[in-house]
Amino acid sequence: MSRAIEVERVSKRYRRQAAGYQLRTLKSALLGRGLTAGLSAAETIAALSEVSFRVERGEAFGVVGGNGSGKSTLLKLIAGLLRPTAGTVIARGRVAALIELGAGFHPEISGRENVFINGAVLGLSRREVERRYDEIVEFSGLGDFIEEPVKNYSSGMYVRLGFAVAIHTDPDVLLVDEVLAVGDESFAHRCIHRIESLLARGRTVLFVSHGLDLVEQLCDRVLWLDRGVSRRLGEPREVIDAYRQQVAEEEGRRHRRAKESELDPSDRPAAADQAPAERPRRWGSRQAEIREARLIVGGEERYDFQTGADVELEIEIEARAPLDDFVFGVAISTPRGAECWGTNTDLAGLEPERLSGAARVRLEIPGFRLAPGEYHVDVAVHSRDGAPYDYRRRVFRFTVSSPERGVGVYFPAHRWGFEGGVEWSGGGPSAAPQAREQET
With 266 labelled, which of 90, 112, 133, 241 sits at a CA distance of 20 to 30 A? Predict the structure, then answer.
C-alpha cells in the first residue's frame, strides 16, 4: 500500500502580535526565510512541534485534540495553504480541502457561480464542472437557492455547497475539518456515506472533528495533538479514550485546585503518567480496576463453544474508592479488529448508584450465535461521559465452531424454503437436523 500523505518532523511557528515585539517588513521576510526567521522563541507561538506520521492510500485518518492544539494548522499545511517552518509535508494526488466555512466563496455572487469558481480552485476545468454541476446541486440540496447570492446562505448551506463541490472533484486526498458538525443530520449521513464510498475506491480521507464517536466510527487510525505536540497515534478507541481521560483529569484538577493540599498523593491516578509503549493494551485512571475476566460455558470456564451456546462473561472489579459514576462495558471483535458486538450497562438503562470495594459483574448471553472463528474480548469500566477507569483490550480470546458454514460474523437462526421445480438429493434442507433446530 503506497503512502498518500507524509508528514516528517513538521513544525509551524507564528510571529506574536503582542505589543513590544519587533515587526518585520515583507522585504526582510523575503530576503530571509520568512516572517518568523531569526525571531527568538519568545517572539513566536508554536502551533506544531516536530509532528510526524504517514497515511496510506485508502486509509481514513483522524486527528483529535482540544482547541488550539494545531489540528487546523496541520490540515492547512497538508493542503498547501501554509508552509511549514521546519520539516516536510507531502500529499500525493489531487487534494480537496474543506477547512474553513465558506472558504473560497464570494459572498456577492450566486451559489451557481461559486460552484464554478470553487471547482476551478480545486483543479477542475469548466467543462468538468459543467458535467458534474447537476450532481453537485442535487447532493447539496440547494436547488431552490442556487441562484441566490451566497451572502444570504446560512452556515449549514455554506457547508453543504462546499462539501458538494469538494466531494465531486473525485479527490485522491480529502481533508475535512469539523464542517460536518454544522450541517443537518440528513446531510451529515449523506456526507459520511460519500466518504465511505471514496474510501472503498482507494481514496484517502484525513478527518478532524470534536465528535469523537464519529472519529472512532469512521477512522482506521487516530492522531491526538495536544498544544501542537503529538501525544499518541494508533487505534481509534485507545487514542480517544486516552484523550478523554486527559480531559477528565484536567477538569478534576480544576475542581480540586482549591483543596489540593488536602489530597493524599497516593489517591492520584498513576496510569496516565505511564508511557504509551508500556500499556498498549490497557489504559485508564484505575479508580476502578478490572482484576480478572473469564468466559463461562455450561457452568465451567472455557474458551471454545459451538455457535448458539449459552455463555456468560464474568468480570472481577475492585474500586479504590467509592464511585457513584460508573459503566461496565464489553466489546467483541475479530483478530483483524472488526467490531462484532458490544454493549454496556448505560445502554441497558442501568443507573449507577454506588461501586465500592470488590464486585463481580456477569453478562449473560443466551444463544450466542457468532459464526465459526476466533474472537477477542475487550472489557471496560468507565464514567458515563466515557472517561476510562480501566480499559483492557483483548483481555482474552475464544473460538467458535459449528457444523454449518456461512460468511460473516453473525449466524442467525435460518431455514431455506423452495417451491416449484427445485430438487435436492437426500431430501433437501427439510431433512437436515440442524435446520429444524434453527427454527426454535
Answer: 241
- Structural domains in the chain, sorted by start: 3-237 (3.40.50.300), 282-401 (2.70.50.60)
Interhelix angle 185-200/155-167, nearest 10 degrees = 20
**What span, in angstroms and rounded, lies between the C-alpha atoms of 255 and 271?**
20
User: C-alpha cell of 247?
Assistant: 480531559
- Contact between 86 and 165 under an 8 Å Cβ cutoff? The reply is no
346-356 pLDDT, tens digit per residue, is 999 999 999 99
Q: Which amino acid is at 168?
A: H
pTM of the model: 0.61
Query: What would the DSSP string read from start to end of 167-199?
Result: HTT--SEEEEESGGGTS-HHHHHHHHHHHHHHH
d(CA 264, CA 332): 38
Beta strand pairing call for 60-64 and 221-226: parallel
Contacts of 351 (CB under 8 A, 6+ apart): none
Over residues 83-125, the pLDDT tens digits come to 999 999 999 998 888 776 556 688 889 999 999 988 888 778 8
